[in-house]
């Protein structure tokens, strides 16, 4: 292998580059996810199927945009999962891989939730094969689909939360990223899990969300900014990777 080929390979596999790609994917995931929430949430009126149906049909483009934004968010999060596995595997490869599996499982569950967003459009357009149902029945089924989408979303958040806790632990144990970033991310992941189970177990669980998600966003956002701006301490990364390799041999 020539010197130029070795240099090109080094740049391709540089942990700083991989970390910055992970940070970019994470930022785009957060932005797309927030856009999807902002686009769709005002169209849903709690416990009022008729009003929700009217808002969705009057703002169908916005509703579809919310679906597309959520899909894009999921695609970028797959990138986050892959690149963070690479960045953190010198700390503990098995746990980094487990975190990646939790992330991919969360994306898969999120995919089911996003498909549920398309169900109301099919029901509310009232195609010929739905003529056996009344308008009120179709509106009620559309609202049920949206409620199921919310439950599926919170199931996915449990997996995302566990992934964030695992990544936070790995960051805190690393020698190439600030320990405080790992602690903040682990706290954020714990908030995701708490919010999800509160939604499942408590009648008023949804009311904790305005307090929980900002904390989680601080954890994700701080690590995202660091990865984008600083990447990782490259020397520390290679030293920890070398130690991990020696321990396996």
Summarize the structure.
Helices cover about 80% and strands about 0% of the residues. The chain is built from ten helices and no strands.
Topology:
Layout: H1 3-13, H2 15-40, H3 49-58, H4 60-88, H5 93-116, H6 119-124, H7 135-173, H8 179-201, H9 209-229, H10 234-248
Helix pairs in contact: 2-4, 2-9, 3-7, 4-5, 5-7, 7-8, 8-9
Oligomer: single chain
Calculate the terminal CA-CA distance, rounded to whole Å: 26 Å
In percent terms, what proportion of residues is strand? under 5%
Percent helix among the residues?
over 70%
Gyration radius from CA atoms, angstroms: 21 Å
Task: Categorize the overall geometry.
Answer: elongated
Main sheet specs: none
Mean pLDDT: 87
**What structural category characterises the helix and strand content?**
mainly alpha
Runs in which pLDDT lies below 50 for 5 or more consecutive residues are 5-11
Number of strands: 0
**Run of helices and strands:** HHHHHHHHHH
Total count of helical runs of at least 4 residues: 10
